[in-house]
Amino acid sequence: MEYVGVWEGTVYNPVPEQTDSTPHITASNQLIQPGYTIAIDRKYWSFGQRFYIEGIGIVEAQDTGSMVNNRNRFDWLVGDYDFAMALGRFQRRVWLIRD
Questions:
Q1: The model's pTM
Q2: Cα gap 17→55, rounded to integer Å
Q3: For the chain, which ranges sit under pLDDT 70?
Q4: Which of 13, 21, 85, 97 has the lowest CB atom count within 10 Å?
């Protein structure tokens, strides 16, 4: 694993108001996986890259979003509105998993 810094995280849910008209399909054409799918900035990361996020675990870059526009930024798909609202914006240390 390669440490890639402290990232800002947010949380989203699979609903049209927070995604698009196909909330259960990611931008990489994968079915969503709550707790595992993250959105990243494609200028810096590729779909399929896996990360270890402190306090969350192993996740995979499967989606993008208009608010995810930085190298050290992710949006975590959770599928629980109350949890997402309670968590808000947060900071986490992140490692890239090299296969």
A1: 0.87
A2: 27
A3: 14-24
A4: 21
